[in-house]
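Data availability (excerpt). The following record was deposited with the supplementary files.
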Amino acid sequence: MDPILIGVIVSIVLIGLWFFATYNRLIVMEQEVENAWSNIDVVLQERYDSLGNMARAAEGFAKGVEKDLFEQFAKARMAAATASQNGNVAGVNAAEGMMASILPRISLVAEDHPDLTASPLYANVQEEIDEQNERIADRREAYNAKVRNWNVIIRQIPSNFVAMIMGAESKDYFEATNTENPELFAPNARESRQEDELDEIEHEIAMIEAQKKLDALKRGSN
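Predicted structure:
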């Protein structure tokens, strides 16, 4: 047999083996991304239920225009839950952004009613949300790492050729705007912020007084 023909056949076989190996690798990596998101979705659904319980507890104390606030939050929460179930990470990011802008205002409504924030039910919900936020943060890192690997390999040469044939597309990172701010749910968040500001002011005053005493000592030594 012609050596050139043998070389061509061997090359075709090697290219075919590489193609199928790369194709299978991409399939596995894509499945890993989907599995990582499923792990996040489980906790997100729990969290959305907890947020709904928190909002309903605070809604009973809402007045006037505040009612619209809770309606907007309910819509954003449902949109986030639906997007999460469908694996629509971009949709979850958008809905979480809406919730992040509304939650501080809901927190203020709750803070104006100490009998609400002091209730065992409300405290339990806060604990649930904190615990869920921690679990989501851990799983978010794993998910985004797999997304990063996926987005890289479908752009790299020569694996991008196989990715193009299989119609692979880049995937969205989970931004988790809302889950990275658990302090928004703290029942005494406003009081804590005021205390922090007061501490900063007192620290500045102390520094000024110390500087004055130091200047006085310098003048006395001269």
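Summary of structural features: DSSP finds seven helices and no strands in the chain.
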